[in-house]
Amino acid sequence: MLEVTPISSLLKFRTPVTLPYWLGSAFRGGVGIQLRESCCVYPQLSCDECSTHCVYYDLYERKRQKKGYAPPPKPIVFVPPFFGRQFMLKEGSTLKLGMLFFGEYVRYLPHIIFALTKLGNKGIGSGRCYGLNQFDVADIMNYEGESVYKDGVVNMESVKSVEISELEPLDVGGSMLVKFRTPVVIKQGGFPPSLQKLIQMIKQRLILYVNEYGEGRIDSEFECDAEVVLSKPHFHVLRSVSSRSGKRSFYTYTGEVVYRINTIDEKARWLLSVGSLIGAGPKSSFGLGFFDISLL
Q1: Number of other residues whose CB lies within 10 A of the CB of residue 220
Q2: The overall pTM is greater than 0.70
Q3: Pairing label, strands 87-89, 246-264
Q4: Among residues 15, 78, 97, 138, which one has the fewest Cβ atoms lying within 10 Å of its Cβ?
Q5: Domains present along the chain, CATH in parentheses
Q6: What pLDDT, in 10s, does the model give residues 32-56?
Q7: SS3 121
Q8: What is the number of other CB atoms lying within 10 angstroms of the CB of residue 10?
Q9: Nearest Cα to 167, choosing from 77, 76, 269, 284?
Q10: CA 247 → CA 51, 100, 285, distances in Å?
Q11: DSSP notation for 33-47
């Protein structure tokens, strides 16, 4: 159906750090600038004028899905931590940056590492203008914690992918806690989403990725009846600026939700396992909609 390759990178800051409370836009945009500088064969042309297929075009400029006319979901997603406030770190501090590679795009892992290394040399965020926020890529690991990059060497044989269709359904019953570790966009109804709505949001994200980078069909029906027992919401307005899209604002939530489950079928439990990996809702390219599940 769809292969997903989760990667975790450890960044070590060589200077003091002042970071914004939302890093999704900073990492996505920063890596994109470095990719274009590194991969572009004809910098005098716009991407629409160029006939060369490259990773930068697929990640940032491709405008149509294979099935449909909307922009496609991005095949490589950066998932930085979300702190909800601006903060400072000392020299030598570390930060973990998650990445997801969909389908065959894992072959571009060396390109992404190179771009991430270049970004570290220049610095991330506004602090780079003052010689701050520079980092080294200290380690890059697969989902089992094994290194795939160390001391400048990429070991692609250690890269491990997950086949979505082979994920085990979540063994859930009684109650469960969902904690959104990055902001989530909920188009209707606000926070918290019902468990049925959350599963539907997972399914919608999955369908987009299967249509674009996998194959097969997602069954539309699942069964779930649950109640919200406890909710701790936090509202965030996230802003992004890019040369292509201009200024944008995302209205999002983080927080925790406890659900009491009355009935849930295997399909819904499988989708919850999928959501624990790929998240839920729109704007995945900015690292939005990722969450953890704990059984109570």
Answers
A1: 9
A2: yes
A3: unpaired
A4: 138
A5: 3-162 (3.30.70.1890), 167-295 (3.30.70.1900)
A6: 999 988 888 888 888 878 877 788 8
A7: helix
A8: 17
A9: 269
A10: 29, 25, 16
A11: HHHHHHH-S-TTS-T
